[in-house]
Design a protein that fits this description.
This protein is about 30% helix and about 20% strand. It is of the alpha+beta class and about 190 residues long. The chain has a 5-stranded antiparallel β-sheet, with helices on one face.
């Protein structure tokens, strides 16, 4: 299934995931590091490759917090970067089977934040609360709660995002903060 969302005309979601191969420590820095330790023969660990623009540099754990998060501009094309962040986390965690649904869900959450929040940035969060489940969320500076619309408004193309989120997820909700909110959704792999 191909999914396109407004703001992804440049194909931001289709860019290649970052390589996880480490890059060697530059020789000059390797010798400085060895001198500071006083042991030039000790092996200096390799530095990981820097992430491409739009991908957060974070440490991964099997489950729990922290996970992956990134602050993005409150604009439609940020949905593509959010999808890439979700796909990267799922690939690292070995939960690729959730990728299609999770990217649709994060697209809708980002789209709602773009449409309804008030400051110029949003924060996308991807965590792994259980070995076979993930939680995606979007934090914004609006305290207005999202509303699940029961009617489809006929042929109207907008306003059905939360119906999609509700259909594809195990659970979703909103956490209110003093200064804004996080709309989150949880997805789980089916257990064998």
């Amino acid at each position: 299934m191909t999914f396109s969302h407004a703001g992804d005309e440049e194909g931001l979601a289709a860019t290649v995931l970052p390589s996880t191969a480490p890059t060697p420590l530059p020789p000059r820095l390797k010798s400085v590091a060895a001198e500071r330790r006083g042991d030039e023969d000790r092996r200096v660990p390799e530095w990981p490759a820097p992430p491409p623009l739009g991908v957060a540099a974070v440490t991964s754990r099997a489950t729990g917090h922290p996970a992956y998060s990134q602050t993005l501009p409150r604009e439609a094309r940020s949905a593509g970067v959010a999808r890439r962040l979700v796909r990267t986390a799922l690939r690292i965690w070995g939960l690729d089977s959730l990728s299609e649904d999770a990217t649709l869900v994060i697209t809708e959450l980002v789209s709602n934040a773009v449409d309804h929040s008030r400051l110029p940035s949003i924060r996308v969060i991807v965590s792994r609360p259980s070995p076979n489940g993930i939680r995606v969320g979007v934090v914004d500076r609006s305290r207005t709660l999202p509303t699940l619309r029961a009617d489809s408004h006929g042929d109207q193309l907008r306003g059905r995002g939360l119906v999609l989120v509700d259909t594809l997820t195990e659970e979703w909700g909103t956490e209110l903060y003093r200064w804004g909110k996080q709309v989150w959704a949880e997805l789980k792999e089916e257990e064998a």
